[in-house]
Every structure is written in structure tokens, then in C-alpha cells.
Amino acid sequence: MAVLNEEQEMLRDMAREWAVNESPVTEFRKVRASGAPEAFDRNAWSTMGQMGWTGVIIPEEHGGSDFGFMSAGLVIEELGKTLTASPLLMSTIAATAIVLGGSDEQKAKWLPKLASGEAIATLAVDEGASHDPAKIETSVSGGKISGTKAFVHEAHGADLFVVAAKDGLYLVEKGDGVSLTTRKLTDQRSHADVTFDGATADKLTGGGDSLLDDVLDRARILTAAEMLGMAQQVFDVTLDYLKQRVQFNQVLASFQALQHRMADLFADLAQMRSAVEAGLQAVDSGFGVARAATIAKAEANRVLHTMSNQGIQLHGGIGMTDEYDVGFYLKRARVLEASFGSTGWLKHRFAKLGGY
Amino acid sequence: MATQLEAETRSDNDAFREEVRQFIADNFPAELKGKANALAGVDGPTDENAAQKAWREAMGAKGWGTPTWPKEYGGGGLDKKQARIIDEELARAGAYNPIGGMGVMMFGPTLLEYGNEAQKREHIPPICRGEIRWCQGYSEPNAGSDLANLQTFAEDKGDHYLVNGQKTWTSGGQWADKCFAIVRTDKSDKHHGISFMLIDMDSPGVEVRPIQMISGMSPFCETFFTDVKVPKENLVGEEGQGWTIGKRLLQHERTNISGGGRLAGMMGASLGDIAKKYCATDGDGELEDKVLRDKIADFEIRWNSFLLTARRAMEESKAAGGVSEISSVLKKIGTKMSQERSELLIDIRGLQGLGWEGDGFSTGELETVRAWLFGKATTIYGGSTEIQNNIIAKRVLGMLDHQ
Predict the structure, then answer these.
(1) What's the predicted TM-score (pTM) here?
(2) Pairing verdict, β B178-184 and B134-137
(3) Do the beta carbons of residue B383 and residue B252 sit within 8 Å?
(4) Angle, CA of A21, A235 and A47, to the nearest 5°
């Protein structure tokens, strides 16, 4: 765990306490059981707004706390541990696009509402099943946007879409010309293909040519923060399980084969934490963000993939049951792994950044 | 907005940086620029030329080779920030710290913690000046990973101990002046029967035989002790406390083998850059061999995250005070990754990367082959990877022994 300042420690402790007490995995089970496509609890969301978590990366003059990405990452990590279903991750990413690229009017219109949680936003980039920002067909003509975005996270609850078109990023409000086709994924969260058919689109003109890349890098880092929380939790519950489960008249934790596997996972988790925290710090310092984001998401993909598989294997049969939580982490893990950069895509980008 | 205090501290640091820069300009011989520090390692001979000697003496007199050690024993008496400034300025000037070896990396910090006043006064200053080379008397033929199984016995003879036994894998033993050793003083208690003592390598009865390694080098030795007299004042700590002291030294060893940023410098250029010199690239400047390119990127991502982990461990241990419990993780990952890197270098260079000697191979290529072979030792010595896994599982994660 990075060395935190007092403000960050308080924020993390508050998020941890709330997640453990008010939003354990049983709350996710309720959301899942409701079957609502929105797939989150509005009451929990308004609590997040009251606690200021929706405005962590939004400047103070627009109603946020401007605590920075390290702080946002701490909250998202804690919520990841309990699989809290909410649009916090996506709305924070979308807010980033407005902070980086919005005009004064756009910021004044949207940021205060996003900071308070009154409005929810999301980011719509990919047009196929795999992340590939180089393949965008969506276009804007005369202020009207047309195209279909695939597998948009948290689309059902969104009031505002930050949409990547061929010539830049646009703000599109839900309503006329915006239609959703629900796509149920294994993580049971909100996903939809979103079709824009002549909807009014308001371009983000700031942020320069690299705006989309800059936003996506922040998306990668924050997504990795949720994955870090998930990996940490799988590790912790697995270790607890090995310490109490008895087989052959021994607790499983006493077997060297399992001890060494846990040591490997512990080392992997240490690497993942370093990479993710360094990514968050890179955004806050404004230095080396592209590289740090690539490392953070690639390490998050690698480690959570292994951790979620080992979590099942080390739990044995009980890990296969729906009654037991560990399987939920596996299902969410793969969805996040495929979002904003698969491992192969990230390695390609890392090599590109390194000039080979 | 910086506070008054921060601003003052910053200007103090600026003044110190200026002092370091001036010292390097005045004392670092230009002919040594860009050279590695062979003398601070454990595996090179001790011959030094006039320039190397002058540089070692200049840094040693300042205590800046061991910047954070107490001034009263010859260290620099500086804080970690100032130590970092020295590192940065040395790097900037293409200079190196000429003070090193096992005395600095392992023995000194341990003696500062466990030694008595007389021992510190005797042994620490020569380490700070780079005058003494220490070797490690730990492993024995039947006490490698099962270190506490050691048999070398020190018999109490009143004013001295009489030591008999054999140590092995004594790194740099043939060049060392002194040896810090763990020996058995009580045969009835595996762990509490061990003591930590200091042995002069030129004592009668000490015999050193270098061991030829698969890399062709002989940095390791077998060391035989036959009726070697060790004065009582050379016992560190209490009799029977050797296991505790010895383990602390191993923590310093692990941190130094793997992390601490040391490896970063040793690793040199990025594999991508090296590959572009040896392998074909396409019109976009990308390596044509996409499998190799993928392997390199995969390695470099994990390597970067290892360096970040070493940095994080340092920051966290600084904030918490003391050696990080993550040192076993760093040793385990760092050594494995340096082996992976050697294998990848051979992959990149093909047969050109497997030269043993003779024309047709650059010095760098030949050194890489030696490093590849020698590097296989890193996951064995300093506590094998399996031992690190045991330490992590039992001490860090609290997984229990069989009941």
C-alpha cells in the first residue's frame, strides 16, 4: 500500500467501512436477483454522492473535492473488494473526459451534477467485442451523431454518454436518437449496445489530439483499481479458507504445495498493487501516464486472471457453487479484463511506446 | 504552495547537492567515467589501479560510500534524502560508489545492530573506507537450504574458540580478509546452539579452495577450518544468539540481491532496443518476429512492475521504519526475472548470444553468456526460491506447519 496522506487514509477507511458494513456481496446478490437492467441500487448511489465519492476527481469550482486519482482509486478498490454494483467507475471516467476536454460551458453544465451524483455518465468507445479505439466508424454531421457502440458499461443508468466518434469525443444526452439493446454478460452488471441515430452531439473541443487516448488511459488505470480490490479480496478469502479447511486430518494451509502457490500469488499481488498505485500516481503527477496506464492494466489483467482461477481451484468444489461468492469475482474479472485493453492489445501498445 | 520549512529544507538539499557535485568534480578521475565498480563486487580480484585507489580513498574519507551509517564509525551520518542525492549525482557524472561488497551490503548493517561498541569501532570504519573485504561463512555441504543443520563446531577453550569444519559457496573467499560465520557452539540444540563469530581469513588452519562453476568463473570457494583459533572478543552478541543475528543478516542479503534499485542499473538497456540491433524490423519499426516482440513486451511490463515494487517497498519501510517484510518477495521475483532476461537475450541474439570465447563475439556478448550461466545461482543462494516461499507462507501469511 502506497504511503498515504491523512486525507487519503480517511477516505479509504470510510470506503472500507461502508463497503464491508453496508455493501457486502449480499447487496450485489440483491441487485442480481432484482433483474433490473440498470443493475445497481439507487439508494447506495445517492449515499456515494453524499459521501463525495462521485466528485473525487472533479475540481472544487465545479462541486468536486479534487482529491485526485490516487484517492479515486482507493475508493474504487474498496468497492471492488465487495463487488459493489454501481456506475461509480464509469461515471468517474466519463467525468475525466469533461475535465480534460470540456469547454467552460460544458464543465459548468455537467460537472456539478456528476460531482453530486445527480447525473450519471458513461464512456462509449468500442464498436466490437474487443477493445480497439483505432476502429471507430461513428461519425457526426451537422451536430448529429450516428453509429453503434458495443457493450457499453452502465449504459442503462446513464444520463450522459461520452462518445468517441471519428473526429473526437462528444457529449450525448440520453433521449431522442439514443436507443439501448441490453447485453447480459456473465458479471450480471449493466451492459448494452447503444445506437445513436441522429442524436444531438456536443463536441469536447479541449484536450488536444490525444484526448481520447488520455481518457482511455485513465479508464485503464481506474479499471485496474477495481481489479486490484477484487484480486486482494480473492486472495484474502482464499487464505482464510485454507487456514480453516481440514483434509487428511490437517488444515490445508499446512501443505507446502499450497503454501508455495499462495506465496506465488502473494508476490503477484504485490506486483499488481505496485503497478496500479504507480498508475494512479502517474495521473496525479501528470508524468508518464500512457506507459504507467499500460503497465497497470496489463498487470491487473495478468494477476487477476490467475488469482480468480486459483481462487476457485483452492476452494475446491465449494468454489464452484453459486452460494459461495468466489465465482462472482471470476465472472467480473473476465469482463474487466476484456475492457479498455486485453493483455495482447496492451503488450502491443507497450512495445509501440518503447519503439519496437 | 511550499511551507517555509519545506522551502528551507529544499534549499538545504540544494546546497548539499552542490557540495556533492563539487566533490565529484574535484575527486572523480575522468578515466573511470562510465566504468562499473568491479572492486565493490564480491566476485572480482582486488587489484586496483592508482585512479581507482584515489577515488576509493576520497569517498571513504568522506564516509559517503556508506552515507547513512553513523559518522562516529566512519559513515556519512546523512539522511536517506541526502544519500539519494549522492546516488543521483554519481549517476549524473558517470561515476560509481567505490565502497561496497558484503561488508557494506550485509555485515555492516548487522554489526551496527548487534555488535558491541569495541566491535563497531574496530570493524565498521575499515568497511566505510573500503579497506577490508568480508566473506560469508554460512553454507555447508549439508547445510544449504537447511541452514540450521550446520556442523562447523566452535569449542570453548576459555579465552578463545577452536573452530573445526567446512563451509562452502564462500563468495569471494579467496580475496577476503575476514569472514562472518555462523558456527555451532552447542550440539544439543539445532537453533539455539548457533553463534555468530568473526574469523580472520589469514588465521592458521584456514584453507580456501575456489570452485569452478558452469559459467567458467570461480567466485565461490570451499573453506576449511582446522583447529582455527578465534578470540572470544570476536563473538557477536551472546553465545547461542547466532541464528537470530544470522537471519537478520539474510534479510539485508535478500534486499540487496533483488531490490533496492541496484539491479535496475545492472540490467542496462531495454530489451526492445537490443532486439532492434539484432533482429529485423518492418516498415513501422516493429520487430518482424511478433512472438519475440510479445515476449519482450510481456517481460518489460513485469520488469517495470518489479522495479515499482522495489521502490514501493523502500518507501513503505522508510515510513514504517525497519526492513520490509516484502524482502522475500523481492528476492524471489527479482532473481527469477533476471534469469528470464538472460534467456530472452539469447533468444534475441541466436547463436551469436551463446559464444564461449574467441573472435567473433563482442565483450558484451561473452559477458552475457557468463551472466546467464552464473545467474542460475541467484535463485539458489541467499535462500533458494523455495525457502523464500516458505518464509512468505509461514511468516507473512501465517500458514502453519503440519500438526
Answers:
(1) 0.85
(2) parallel
(3) no
(4) 25
Q: Report how far residue B197's alpha carbon sits from residue A100's, in angstroms, rounded to the nearest whole number.
A: 63
ipTM of the complex, rounded to two decimals: 0.92
Distance CA B276, CA B128 (A): 42
The full 3-state SS of A153-174, as one line of letters, equals: ECCCCCCEEEEEECCEEEEEEC
Bridge pairing between strands B235-236 and A191-200: unpaired
B253 is catalytic: yes
Query: What CATH code is assigned to A121-203?
Result: 2.40.110.10
Which residues of B fall within a CB distance of 8 Å from A299?
301-302, 305
Compute CA B70 distance to the chain's CA centroid, rounded to the nearest angstrom: 20
Closest A-chain CA to B304? A295
Residue A350, chain B, CB below 8 Å: the answer is yes
Q: Which CATH number fits domain B134-239: 2.40.110.10, 3.40.190.150, 3.40.1110.10, 3.20.20.140?
A: 2.40.110.10
Smallest CA-to-CA distance from A309 within A264, A252, A270 is with: A264
Cβ atoms B75, B66 nearer than 8 A: yes
B315/A295 CB distance under 8 A: no
Nearest-by-CA chain A residue for B275: A356
Buried b (16+ CB within 10 A) or exposed e, B231-264: eeebbbbebbbbbebbbbbbbbbbbbbbbbebbe
**pLDDT tens series, chain B, 403 aa:** 344 545 555 677 889 999 999 999 999 999 888 776 654 444 455 678 899 899 999 999 999 999 999 999 999 999 988 988 998 899 888 888 989 889 998 999 999 999 999 999 999 999 999 999 999 999 999 888 889 999 999 999 999 999 999 999 998 899 999 999 999 999 999 999 999 999 999 999 999 999 988 988 788 899 999 999 999 999 999 999 999 999 999 888 877 665 444 444 445 578 999 999 999 999 999 999 999 999 999 999 999 999 999 989 888 877 777 666 788 999 999 999 999 999 999 999 999 999 999 899 998 899 889 889 989 999 998 889 999 999 999 999 999 876 6
Question: Which CATH code for domain A6-116?
Answer: 1.10.540.10
Which fold does the domain A211-353 belong to in CATH?
A: Butyryl-CoA Dehydrogenase, subunit A; domain 3 (1.20.140)
How far apart are the C-alpha atoms of A282 and B392, rounded to whole Å?
A: 30
